[in-house]
Amino acid sequence: QVQLVESGGGLVQPGGSLRLSCAASGFTLDSYVVGWFRQAPGKEREGVGCIGNTDPTTYYAHSLKGRFTISRDNAKKMVYLQMNGLSPEDTAVYYCTAGTLCYEDYQPDSSLEVWGRGTLVTVSP
After folding, report:
1. Can you list the pairs that 57-61 forms with residues at least 24 positions away whose Cβ atoms lie under 8 Å?
2. Of all residues in the chain, what percent carry a pLDDT higher than 70?
3. Helix, strand or coil for residue 31?
4. How far apart are CA 122 and CA 119, in angstroms?
5. Is 102's pLDDT higher than 90?
């Protein structure tokens, strides 16, 4: 079964850090670009960023540069999102994706082939 499963979400205080993980199964992860999206309550889904497969170039949403880092371990079929300096505005459900394109201003378009179910991150005192 082709799937991505996120983990690592939870409650964190403002200024804190959290690392999300995404486990891939049922397909060859290193053939795909992987990325992260998030959706805050009442808001549109937005791209966090992505990382290439053969070329590990990363792209991030402009507002998140310097705070968020995406990495991957193809041997373990894992993708990670390290989040630092969290604020309440980062509260959202975070989704892991696998697709064919990675670019600036990452969008939830037709190049995405696999979506995880999401993990909730809540930033609150």
Report:
1. 57/102, 58/102, 59/102, 59/103, 59/104, 59/105, 59/106, 61/105, 61/106
2. 100
3. helix
4. 10
5. yes
Distance (Å, rounded) from C-alpha 102 to C-alpha 47?
Answer: 11
CA-to-CA distance for 113 and 125, rounded, in angstroms? 36
Query: And the tokens for 28?
Result: 């060859």
Assigned token pair, 53: 């497969």
Amino acid code (one letter) for 30: D
Q: pLDDT, tens digit, for every residue of 46-68?
A: 999 999 998 889 999 998 989 99
CB-based contact 79:24 (threshold 8 Å) = yes
Burial annotation 72-106 (CB, 10 A radius, 16+ → b, else e): bebeebbbbbebeebeeebbbbbbbbbbeebeeeb
